[in-house]
Design brief:
The protein is an alpha+beta fold. 27% of the residues lie in helices and 40% in strands. The strands form 3 sheets. It has a 4-stranded mixed β-sheet, with no helix packed on it. The chain starts with a helix and ends with a strand.
Length: 136
């Protein structure tokens, strides 16, 4: 009896959790293109947003061991709301707005999960993503 109760609880947790909420979380990485060290990001309220850096190595040819090193930059934003960001560079200061966009893959997974998870992902906004930022 106890084994069946545990299985039932686990199934209910998956059923009443949205796919995006469960697997992705509440934040979305927003990729930054043309980033340089003198660029800073802030919310409209003046809160500094940290920039995260990821080093990647792409192997082009395994026989000659030719590879390309790449550095990717991103900031994390909560995916349930619009964000007005203030971008400051050495030359200028400007603002941009990022609007959340529906991730259709998450919608399909929610529908395959019986439709109930869709309401969780709508509420949390976890199935949303943002367009990348190009620093000007």
């Amino acid at each position: 009896m106890r084994k069946h109760s545990i299985i039932l609880v686990v199934l209910l947790l998956f059923l009443f959790n949205g796919c995006a909420t469960l697997f992705k979380g509440y934040e979305d990485p927003v990729h930054i293109y043309q980033y340089s060290e003198d660029v800073s990001f802030q919310t409209i309220n003046g809160v500094q947003i940290p920039v995260h850096k990821t080093e990647q190595k792409f192997e082009i040819d395994s026989r000659s061991h030719f590879s390309i090193d790449s550095t990717l930059y991103h900031i994390s934003l909560y995916s349930n709301a619009n964000h007005v960001l203030l971008i400051k560079t050495a030359k200028k200061e400007y603002s941009i707005t990022r609007y959340p966009k529906l991730g259709w893959g998450w919608l399909v997974l929610d529908l395959l999960g019986g439709g109930v998870p869709m309401f969780i992902d709508i509420y949390t906004g976890a199935w949303n993503h943002f367009d990348p930022i190009v620093v000007q």
